[in-house]
Specification:
The structure holds 2 protein chains of 2 kinds. By secondary structure, chain A is an alpha/beta fold. Chain A contains 16 helices and 11 strands. A 9-stranded mixed sheet of chain A has the order 3-2-4-7-1-8-11-10-9. In chain A, strands 5-6 form a two-stranded antiparallel ribbon. In chain A, a hairpin with a 3-residue loop joins strand 10 (about 375-380) and strand 11 (about 385-395). The longest helix of chain A has 20 residues, at about 160-180. Chain A is globular. The relative contact order of chain A is 0.19. By secondary structure, chain B is of the alpha/beta class. Chain B has a domain at about 10-125 and about 215-230: Peroxisomal Thiolase, Chain A, domain 1 (3-Layer(aba) Sandwich), CATH 3.40.47. Chain B contains 15 helices and 11 strands. In chain B, the strands form 2 sheets. Chain B has a 9-stranded mixed sheet. Chain B has a two-stranded antiparallel sheet with strand order 5-6. In chain B, strand 5 and strand 6 form a beta hairpin. The longest helix of chain B has 17 residues, at about 335-350. Chain B is globular and about 55 Å long. The chains are: A alpha/beta, B alpha/beta. Chains A and B meet through helix 2, helix 3, strand 3, helix 4 and strand 8 of A and strand 3, helix 4, helix 5, strand 8 and helix 10 of B. Strand 3 of chain A pairs antiparallel with strand 3 (about 85-90) of chain B, so a sheet runs across the interface.
Chain lengths: ~400, ~375
Amino acid sequence: MQKHRKNRNVAIIGIGQTALSSHKEDQNQVEMVAEAVRNALEDAGKTIDDIDCVVHGNMELFEMQFQPDMWHALGCGSYGKEEYRITTGGTVGATLVCASDNLVASGLYDTVLCIGFEKLQEGNTTGGITNMADPLWFRNLQTGALTSTTAMELIQKFGKERVLRAAMKYRIMMDKHAMLNPRAHRRLGLEYDQMETLMETSPQLVGELRLIHMCSQSDGACAMILTSEDRVREGTAKPPVWIRDHETSHREENMSNLYGARKPKSTHRDCAERLFARNGITDPLGYFDVFEMYDPSAFWAVDWLGEFLLLEGDEHLRLLEAGEFDLDGKLPVNPSGGVIASNPIGATAMLRIAEAALQIRGDAGGHQIKKEVRHALASGFGGSLWTVLMILEKEPNW
Amino acid sequence: MTVGVGKKRVAICAVAQLKNDPDLWHTRFQGMLLEILEDLQRQTGFRYGEGGVEQIVSVSDDFFDARTISNNGVQDVLGGQYLAEEKMAQEGLNAIGYANAVILSGHKDVVLIMGHCKESQGESRNLITNCGFDPFYGRAVGLDYLNAAGLQARAYMAKSGLTDDHLARIVARSRQWAAKNPYANARETLPPGKVKASPMLCDPIRQLHAYPVSDGAVGLLLASEERAREYTDRPVWITGFANAMDAFFFGDRDLTSNFALKKAAAKACERAGIRDLKGAADVVEVMDCYAYQQPMWMEGLGFCGDGEGARFIDEGGPGKYRVNLSGGALAGNPMIIAGLYRAVEAALQLKGEAGDHQVPDARCAVAHSTNGPAGQFHSVLILEA
């Protein structure tokens, strides 16, 4: 495996988020995006004049806005600037940060602003996701992200009682984290002693998948500012967070990938293996201090922890049961409350990177991890189980 | 600022294009892309994975494909199986600008670009581009990219002295060249009189002033300077790329000022180290979805003075500067990937593979694209042999 190369180092110097909520009726899309951009500029101590290029993304069919970056030029500050619009489904927020990293590292741009947003209230989210399926083969079967195949597989492997409890443990842990994050959308105040009740009373969606397991449907935007190492040396308002490396793993859309008898290797594991190998990371569980994971449902989260961290057997379940993914555990997962708490889809994957970066800066507020965070991992998810994975560092000394 | 440029170069190693067609009803877009992929593989023998193509940049559009995440349905054709794939939305030429940056950044050495669009699938292009306006003002009054172009055309004609007669000549010339390009959609030659007699579509744009509904697909293989020779003996170098955004609301901008295009062209020239694009370019491919755009964008690129579009046509500017020898977008390319078609044609000229419309000894070519209502956004690519 070839070692990772980069033309020059890139750091995150500004992070802006809007509050995340089911309805943002006081703002239109442009105003919502502008709020995130203003917050990011303020955070970075920069003005829009310092930005060389804007990178914009979401999924346009959710809001039915064709080429939204044109209208959004008003809120992005892209007037007179270079601009790219890149979209990759649910992973888009992370892809925008990867793309911005590439653009700055190329030497063509010094400072890049990236923006992910979604106003799911303006559309039909499940309908929109169903619409991604092939009209001839899949669309009649699609249930727009609501699938319990993972739950079924986990149950076959580890037993029903254990899996249902693990999923609920994860779900309540996420809510406890969200309760500490004032920006999070769903903050329910769940307690672990409600586990049994919720397992029975939460409305059933598909198979073992219940409403309580599923991510929310949110409005919100996230913006980040990335700049080159030279510019960082000139001074930054907040501590820079370095982007060490990133990788993307996509997959074909076909029946055998999703429902075949022999389950193919997951893109999560594939992506993690490639990324860690070329960066010489052999023990991800030990190396990383925090993991912000795109967790669309509690069952997926439980399963994917094992995949991303390259664990074998039931190790991920044992770690979860032992509280090692809690805020004070060995590897805290989603101190922000994750996607289960808040999911403005086009911004969601960027929020993972933003929240991981805030943890490194020590700036996360109520959900800041107590121990020092030096190495962070963030993931994006989308499409037919696509993955984007990014490594963030406190110091550029890898 | 320009750390990467001047030190490293990125090459277009191979290009492939599908013949543009008014309605490829018998082929799904996956099948169209497969032809392109196999063409590129025949030319270069490229493989996927480490040491080969590790990154794919696709170009397509959710609206035109009527699919959320339009790139999801083409992963198996693009080769996006356990590989990085990213979709450049809506503006094909930006895919080349971005792939250039990916390679200069050191992140990946070989990038495959694949774009597709089937305009024939939609009920109406105007229905889609109407959704490009904000839902409160523009969409409600029925604006779409056609009538936005109509407003701009009228304003530019007033400014530059361009007449219905000029527009007819621009279309007639496009068809003459398209007849020599086996990949063009509208290849019938047309006398200017017939263009002038065609029905009014959106005043002052006549039916034949507008690009025909087209289906198409395009592919390019890009590589770093060190790796390019593995794939081609005749690399075409990306020396300058830039784009720029204008204001959204028409009241906030001068529709005839070419604000964004001038900015993009100046930046692309700066990156390419070119002072005088007019003197340097041997071939120019501009995205002229509507006839008035050809002189207007040439003005924006600096090939004629401000408001001199009519004189540019009268003095034979398009012939002199070898503009759109492919027939241009007027001869029919899907809007989303028309910029990629421009780049493919520019690259073929520099490779000496443009067939009947080849310019002898072309060394420098410009490919231009625009997107958004009335040219809100422009991209400019400069290629050199």
